[in-house]
Design brief:
Helix content: 55-70%
Radius of gyration: 18 Å
Bound molecules: zinc ion
Largest sheet: 3 strands, mixed
Number of strands: 3
Shape: globular
Oligomer: single chain
Structural class: mainly alpha
Number of helices: 10
Strand order of the largest sheet: 1-3-2
Order of helices and strands: HHEHHEEHHHHHH
Length: 213
Amino acid sequence: MKGFLQSLPVVGKVFVDIQPEEVWAFWRFMQDHYRTTVVNKRDALEMQLVAQALDALGIQSRERFLRNFTTTLGRRIYTPFEVGSPRGGWDLWSQVVICVHEHQHVVQHDREGLSFEVSYLADRAARARWEAEAYRSNLELHFWRYGTTPSARRIAEVLGDYGCRPEDVDVAAKSLALSAVSIRKGAVINEATHVALGWLDEHVPRLRAKGVA
Ligand SMILES: [Zn+2]
């Protein structure tokens, strides 16, 4: 019993957690599949300009935008972390989740063409709908790993940080709650999640919640 209690936390942690090289390989796979590039947000002049503009418009502080948010423009994904190194609120699993979320935005871009970027930037209600769809990937991955879905309301509230109004957040929360019902029945709706789960099932099946097919 003593040996069991002593060894379990160490063995469990090393065995269960995703490893840096697996996160890196996963990003590599998603990038190859969707032909995207990853850019460090702080090094990108265009992101410095966006950060300044958002700050000036009172939408979001420069620091918060650069530190807390991953941003996708077309096929370029700007990350506030180095893929595979956990840092500042970005643990390894959250790097996997955000990878799928951002690639769902790439799917939207491919599906809708320029109207996606235009409406995303110009129309708060549309932005809430695009994000509700991308955050569905967060729910799908959470279910795959833990067998539960997190609060749709809490996820939707993040949209306040995207300049969305309370009524937009309400719509997003309802749409995410509906998605969660299907996800708990085993549905995988987002294309980027389908692609991602193919890789995760093959390479890190140990992470999948028991009972999730
Ligand atoms: Zn997003």
